[in-house]
Design goal:
single chain, alpha+beta, four-stranded mixed beta sheet, two-stranded antiparallel ribbon, about 20% helix, elongated
Length: about 120
């Protein structure tokens, strides 16, 4: 008798034939857009981040999931973006945001129905 234990991967999760991964991006990559390298089960690939991307935005890499043995079709990989701010906060960025917020505002909680 053989007993096999499979441990969770540190950053990939699997749902059927699809692979999911959360990838951190910088504030400038989120605002301006960028091409970044992301891991897949078959090695890193380039992924284009559209300008204005936000935490929670999910991008699909077709055919980068796991092969379905029944259909012989590969699943997809879904990349969920997570915007990460500099730590510690950059003094120049803080100053810019203070100036920017004086003339512009948007209520994200109201838009989400939380207020």
């Amino acid at each position: 008798m053989v007993e096999v234990h499979v441990e969770a991967h540190p950053f990939f999760t699997r749902q059927g034939s699809d692979i999911h991964v959360e990838v951190p991006i910088t504030l400038n990559e989120a605002i301006l857009g960028a091409t970044i390298r992301v891991p897949t089960v078959s090695g890193p690939v380039a992924l284009k981040i559209p300008p204005g991307a936000n935490t929670g935005s999910t991008l699909r890499l077709r055919g980068k999931g796991v092969m379905n043995q029944a259909t012989k079709q590969a699943g997809d990989q879904y990349v969920k973006l997570k915007v990460v701010l500099p730590d510690p906060p950059d003094a120049e960025l803080v100053k810019f945001m203070e100036e920017w917020s004086r003339t512009r505002s948007y209520d994200v909680r109201k838009k989400a129905g939380l207020e």
